[in-house]
Each structure stands twice: as C-alpha cells, then as structure tokens.
C-alpha cells in the first residue's frame, strides 16, 4: 500500500489559513510521489478505486483545520461543520480527486439530533464492531510483557531502550504525582445536548463516496466541554486500494473489468486508543481488541496527541521523533502483537498514526485538574508502523511463535515539531525494525 500523512501545525480557529497550510503540504506530497516515479492518473479514478491512483490513502490529523484546544462550546461553535458538508469535507473531496486516493481527515461535527444518517447503522450491521465504554470491561489476562523495545540493525538507533511503564500513562500532566496509583483525573462525562456535536472524521473516495463518517468514542478532557461521545459505532470499513499492485503471475486471459481490491480497515481518533475515561483498566485495550476482533489489516488514526516535552525541548530537536510517545502508541496495540504471537491475528497489521505539531494556548488546562500552564503541546512523530511475524509480510496466523519473533516495523517517522509529509510504500523495506521481548522467561510463553 502507498500511504501518506500530512503533519500540520494548525492555528486555532484559522480554518482558511490551515487549509492553505495543507495545500502547500499537498504540493510537497505530489512532488515526492512523482520524484519516486510512482505512476497514477490522479483525477478521474473510477469509483471502485482499482488502479491509477497516486496513493491508496492520505490521512490528516484530528480536527485538522479548526485546531483542537478550544476551552468551551461557545469558543468552538463558529467552527463546527455540518455532517459531511463543511470546509473539511470539501477539501477532502478535492484532495481525493486530485490524488486519486482515499482521504481521511478529522473535523468538529455539528450533527442532527436524530442521527447523522451515514455512519448510523454501518457499524451496527456487524455486532463485533463494538467498543465497550463500560469500566468493567473484561481485560487482557496479562499486561504486556515488555522489558525492552529493541532496535535491530536496520534502525537508526543502535542500542536497546528500556520501556518505563509509568512513562506511558496518558500525557501530559506536568505536576503529576508518580507515587499515586491513579495520577490522572477521571474525565467527566459529557453533557447530553439536544443538538449534539462530535469530534469526527470523514473518509472519502476520489469519486466522493463516503466510506466512513466516524465519531470519536472516547473523549479527552478537551473534548468534554463541547462534544458528545460518538453514537454511530466503532469505526470499520473496507478501503479500496487505488494503486496498481505489481502482478506476480502473467495474465493468461485479458481482463474485461478492473478488479477492485479492498482492505479491512479500522478507524479511531486519538484518545480512542486509551482506556475509556482513564477509569477502565489499562489492559482492557478496547480499541486494539476491536482491531483484532474485526480482522482489520489497516488502522487509520487521526490524532492531536500531546507531549510532556516543553517548548524548548520541542524546538531544540524539531526533526527528532518523540520516542516516548511512539513507544506508548505501540504498547496500546498489545493485543495485535499477541495476535501475531498466538496465531489469532490476520497477519501483518499496518497502523497509520497521523498526528499534528505545534502549540495552542488559552484552552482547557490539560490534565483535568487545573494543573499546567494551559498550553497544549503536540507530539508530532507521525508514522506508518507494521506489526508482523519476522520475515512474514502476508502471514495469516498459524502456529504460535515466541514474542521476539514479532517485528514492529517503521517505514517512516516524522519529527516532534516539524510540519511535513510522511510517505511510504509498505511493499518497500522499512527504515526501522523494533523487536519486543518479554521481561522474564515465562512472560512470552504464557497464555
């Protein structure tokens, strides 16, 4: 698959300016695609998306054009967009036609009171497409047996890095007491509004077909003042592949109609990968279990993920990824890793983390308890990651293997504070390969 993300630094409330920023990055993306010699006709791709596109999918951050850290419903109200019909949807349609690919982008949705008419029921057709919001959710039988996430010889890093479990608690709360068992304040339940608003995403094909209109299920502190919990089911759909894949065997007969290829795809927004409300057990892994149970092979994640790093740390190493954040992201997909180990998974799973960069002040005090300086600082580090058995890109489960036979591959990862384009072809060799190891001899062998 050919996948791209645009890592933006949106200005809060500057929709037109942020769209111009995205357009400039789109031009960079097109130059990079052409520079790599990728074919594709761009505009005019057929409805099935079978062949001819520059990419398969482009993913932008959560609330990409409005910005994220709004302090209240009153503050965000001018920037709420009608379901599938605002400036974000218009931009997505134009970009999808331009590139000949599926486009996924986040926006603040002002929905109708009786349901948005699109996502409602799509996911409900499949009862397995549910993400529980009950704090008594059944948990994984064991926490991730991770003592190291080691880079192999293909990585830019030369040494193993210890994983600090406490470093992966939901970021960021600058004055957190690490001695407390629960250092983060429970996120309050959102108020039910007669005309609900949602933190949403739209996923659209080059011909304008809407594949998904997904509403964020697990709200972060910043969402609660204005948004309701998503009501249209867990995100899942079949994404058509628009690029022409190389043929492995010669065609004996001419094909009269192009064959549409699709890939089962899960969709979440940022906080969705965390424990519900920060009250569910950390090892409930609600979203990751949804990915595993649905058989998704591709996961799209528009994000506005925060970092503990300060302004100077961000600016001083803007091109370096925030590895603490990256490790936490990987850890939140532990059931997918276990699926590779015990053979219950569907083979390689590709995770697309489409985060943003920059700072936003004057909004909700991050952490939910009044601590901090009221400035939201974003982690960037957008990347495309594969989880697979070592040397087996297309494996479909099978016999149980040891944990250290599972590879976490990274095709590209952007810096913590740089605007830019993440562009990968998953048929090519990854830039980095990490390996997960159990902390004790029995960890990786236990059921």
Task: Describe the SSE topology.
Layout: E1 2-7, H1 15-35, E2 57-59, H2 73-76, E3 81-82, H3 87-99, E4 102-110, E5 148-151, E6 161-162, E7 197-204, E8 210-215, E9 235-240, E10 262-267, H4 286-294, E11 298-302, H5 311-316, H6 323-331, H7 334-342, E12 349-354, E13 359-360, E14 376-377, E15 383-389, E16 406-413, E17 420-425, E18 432-437
Parallel strand pairs: 1-2, 2-4, 3-4, 10-11, 11-12
Antiparallel strand pairs: 1-17, 4-7, 5-6, 5-18, 7-8, 9-10, 12-15, 13-14, 15-16, 16-18
Summary, kept brief:
This protein is of the alpha/beta class and 447 residues long. Helices cover 16% and strands 21% of the residues. The two termini are 33 Å apart.
Instruction: Give the CATH superfamily.
Output: Carbon-nitrogen hydrolase
> Which strand order does the major sheet show?
6-5-18-16-15-12-11-10-9
**What is the overall shape?**
globular
Radius of gyration: 21 Å
Q: Strand pairing plus helix content: what structural class?
A: alpha/beta
Distance between the termini: 33 Å
Description:
With 447 residues, the chain is an alpha/beta fold. The protein has a single domain (2-245, 261-445), classed as Carbon-nitrogen hydrolase (Nitrilase/N-carbamoyl-D-aminoacid amidohydrolase), CATH 3.60.110.10. It has seven helices and 18 strands. It has helices at 15-35, 73-76, 87-99, 286-294, 311-316, 323-331, 334-342, and strands spanning 2-7, 57-59, 81-82, 102-110, 148-151, 161-162, 197-204, 210-215, 235-240, 262-267, 298-302, 349-354, 359-360, 376-377, 383-389, 406-413, 420-425, 432-437. Strands 6-5-18-16-15-12-11-10-9 form a nine-stranded mixed sheet, covered by helices on one side. It is globular and about 55 Å long.
